[in-house]
Automatic annotation (TrEMBL):
Identification of the protein by name: Branched-chain-amino-acid aminotransferase
GO molecular function, one term: L-isoleucine-2-oxoglutarate transaminase activity
CDD domains: BCAT_beta_family
Keyword Oxidoreductase tagged: no
Amino acid sequence: MPLRRSKALVKWIYENQHKMQTLRRCSSTLRYKELEESSVPSLEPVAEVAPAHEPATKPRPQLTPDISFKFDDLQVTLAAPYQLQKKPEAIDLGFGKYFTDHMMKINYHRELGGWQKPEISPFEHLSLHPAAKALHYAVQLFEGLKAYRGVDDKIRLFRPDLNMQRMNLAAQRSGLPMFDGEELIKCITRLVQIDQEWVPHSETSTLYIRPTLIGTEPTFGIIEPESALLFVILSPVSAYYKTNSDGAVSIYADPNVVRAFPGGVGNRKVGSNYGPTIEITSRAAKLGHQQVLWLFGPNHELTEVGAMNIFVVYINEDGDKQLSTPPLNGLILPGVTRRSILELAGEWKELTVKEEVLTMQRIADLNQQGRLLEMFGAGTAVVVTPISNVGYLDTNIPVPTMQQHNPVYQRLKDTLLAIQYGHIEHPFAKVIT
Ligand SMILES: Cc1ncc(COP(=O)(O)O)c(C=O)c1O
């Protein structure tokens, strides 16, 4: 090979290292020649790139999926006796430390027509491509609901339809495939029935259900994933976090840190809302507080507390006792417990119930005037948790929640637990066994 040609070839190899695999496989003289020729810039006119067109119409929000997986297609593989785990003692449960013997998986592959058959199988690790979109761009969402073993030994879910609606809204926002919530409830019901002995025989612990939907397509483009995985795992749980000896928590508000912002995803249960809260939660803990109070805007509006919706009880300008929570303005997760509290308390004659903007100034003023009675957080994991102190701008605002006679928080907690554990029959509870 003349020197000039071989130099050109070396140059080509240098510039086309990424194609070396091909080169190695086809290292005949003929192939070298072919490659050399193809490295010469083509004089052919480059086809004109079609101009990008504006979409003719705005995409319409699609709130019901066209196609969903079906419970009728569910395939079940039960764990072999040697795969069954020892059940932990109730006292050791903690929150999300132990998992049951089975899990559910439903794959989505666009090229195979979308949702595949749901499968219940022995609990196992997932195998994911390292480029899966969930791992890089948090193309991911989750839900949290519980199965309660009632006083009648029947197992109940609490308003699971609301979790399904919320899950579909988060899927829509994240470009993940939507599905028929009723079908997922039926599949979850079957999973809980199979692992029913894992639902604690206790009124202080429950079986936490964690449906999760992740984008699994292994490409770096920030676009709708062509493949996804919906999985459901179950964990027997007790208290979500420790309270003070009186059962209340102290919360910490730093107005410089926000959880959500207008137009963002504060109202969707996506993983990317939670990771960035860890540092401030640890800072709050070092200062002696159990949770973070999330404020927003120049007026330091209250939005949520930790992973709970926030409620305040006070004497209003008319002298009436009022239960208030901030309105769903896009920054706040539409909690199932929040909605249930508003609906239940809305029927109590002696209480005014309102969704209203609450600022830190308003809380401080109410407290100073002796009109602030209670503050509490509410959510599936914690039910209702009273708040006894707010750390804010180098001061502490003591909240007299624990000093009230017949506090509202306790009545709400008792009512919710009575529904969940079957002490009273209520349409919010769905018996599944
Ligand atoms: C940020 C946030 N707010 C509120 C809640 C309470 O919602 P739910 O009552 O549906 O559990 C949760 C828990 O899911 C949450 O993560």
